[in-house]
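Input:
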Amino acid sequence: MQERKPDPITDPIREAFLALCQSEFEKGSYEMTSEKNMAELAVQMQESGMRIAKAIMCSRLEDDPRRAGDKVVCRKCQGTLRIQERSQRRAVQTVLGEIEYVRAYGVCDRCGHSGAPLDEALGISAFGPSVDARKRICHAAVADGAVHIRELKNLQFPDAVFILDWAHAAQHLSDCSKALFGEGTNNAHAWYQIQKRRLWNGHVNVANGWPIGSGVAEGAVKQFALRLKGSEKFWNVSHTGAEEMLTLCALYHSGDGRWDRHWRKRAEPR
Ligand SMILES: [Zn+2]
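Output:
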């Protein structure tokens, strides 16, 4: 390995990162996790990995020379972007969770375009989630635990994340508590409350900010049908929501790589 020169700026970041890795490693030791089964261990390790990945991503963005925005060309008119703010803070939702970073923000006096050179170089829009996060948000299935629905999801959307509908999961737990301890007993109630809390914690971690109830999707389907199929509904060029929706469905269902190509293209700097 190459000898590193001491660096007063990056050394503390590196130290903090190594301390995080060490603490995640220790959290996984037998003394700390002897009560856990394999499924619980896997969730814990996955979360540790995510925290480490997030820390690397943050330090990576902190290191990015493009964030300073020195001498930047306007991407609209090729003029010069005048930097208004050197250290504007931004939080963006990514597949690793929310990432915060600081970057320069400017405006072009010639054409009025404004933006952050780093965001443009990274291929993310000035607002909203990153492209990779959008792709996953567009591609999650929320349903009850019925086997046939799960099989249908695996057939139609094999890559989509499956999220168990919260209300259905809680109902199953409630039925289970009655079967175990008898309906209306204190023990049944106490057991249900504990398991529900455990389930909730698991859900929040696994769902990564996605909806955990199918109401959102069911509402969307209703809305989609009403807007597309109602009588006297017309779609024209200036209101292309339905077409965009159908295009996305078509891209995905074509199954020949168009879906991935579309999202790769979206991620390119514009
Ligand atoms: Zn311009």
